[in-house]
């Protein structure tokens, strides 16, 4: 999940922000080539970019976070690619030592997002609300699993059974939650969203 970003018609091959993950890019590139997926761009030079730093808000707007895992040069390269597709890239700063924006917000429907509001910049929260996106509060006491879920279709998500508060919040806001026992996997540092890699996205 931390590697390529899938966009319309192909992929952007990321460049890991931590040295111990460098080299992960090669098997991903080979796999994409083997299945015939075009690679539009490879983040290179001083650019850093990880998949968890990238988020689609809708088909015309995406978000990238800049911090210790993705930098401004990586964001600039990604913006150039998305511009050719008519997609606006919104750039936000991670707060503190936050790794990825995917640890603070996940779209769970076309107009709903599960968020840790305390981890997101104020102006970005304002923009989300002005865009008509309803913000559903996750429980920060549940750690990363509180927001780390996967939308398999608008209004239906898969989430760790540990995230009871967040699941209740989603249920109250008419989002169907399918829970799985993911606690042991999460000890390695990744949740449901981190462990998946969508290759094809249907239009909604």
Describe this entry's structure for a reader.
- The protein has five helices and twelve strands.
- It is of the alpha/beta class and 204 residues long.
- Strands 1-2-3 form a three-stranded mixed beta sheet, sandwiched between helices.
User: Tally of extended strands?
Assistant: 12
Describe the largest sheet.
3 strands, mixed
Supply the helix-strand structural class: alpha/beta
Q: What is the number of helical segments per DSSP (H or I, 4+ residues)?
A: 5
> Can you give the mean pLDDT?
88
Which features characterize this protein?
alpha/beta; 22% helix
Question: Topology of this protein?
Answer:
Elements: E1 5-7, E2 10-13, H1 25-34, E3 39-42, E4 54-58, E5 61-66, H2 72-83, E6 88-93, E7 105-109, E8 112-115, H3 122-130, E9 134-137, E10 149-153, E11 156-160, H4 164-172, E12 176-180, H5 183-186
Parallel strand pairs: 2-3, 5-6, 8-9, 11-12
Antiparallel strand pairs: 1-2, 4-5, 7-8, 10-11
Briefly say what this structure is.
The protein has 204 residues and is of the alpha/beta class.
């Amino acid at each position: 999940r931390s590697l390529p970003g899938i966009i319309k018609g192909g992929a952007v091959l990321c460049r890991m922000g931590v040295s111990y993950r460098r080299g992960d890019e090669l098997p991903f590139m080979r796999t994409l080539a083997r299945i015939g997926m075009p690679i539009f761009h490879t983040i290179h030079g001083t650019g850093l970019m990880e998949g968890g730093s990238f988020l689609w808000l809708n088909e015309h707007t995406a978000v990238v976070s800049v911090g210790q895992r993705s930098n401004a040069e990586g964001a600039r390269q990604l913006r150039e690619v998305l511009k050719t597709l008519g997609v606006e890239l919104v750039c936000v700063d991670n707060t503190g030592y936050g790794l990825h924006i995917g640890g603070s917000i996940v779209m769970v429907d076309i107009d709903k997002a599960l968020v840790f509001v305390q981890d997101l910049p104020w102006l970005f929260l304002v923009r989300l609300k002005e865009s008509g996106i309803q913000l559903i509060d996750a429980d920060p006491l549940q750690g990363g699993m509180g927001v780390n879920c996967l939308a398999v279709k608008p209004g239906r998500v898969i989430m760790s059974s540990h995230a009871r508060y967040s699941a209740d919040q989603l249920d109250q806001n008419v989002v169907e939650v399918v829970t799985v026992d993911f606690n042991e996997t999460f000890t390695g540092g990744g949740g449901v969203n981190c462990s998946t890699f969508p290759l094809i996205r249907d239009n909604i």
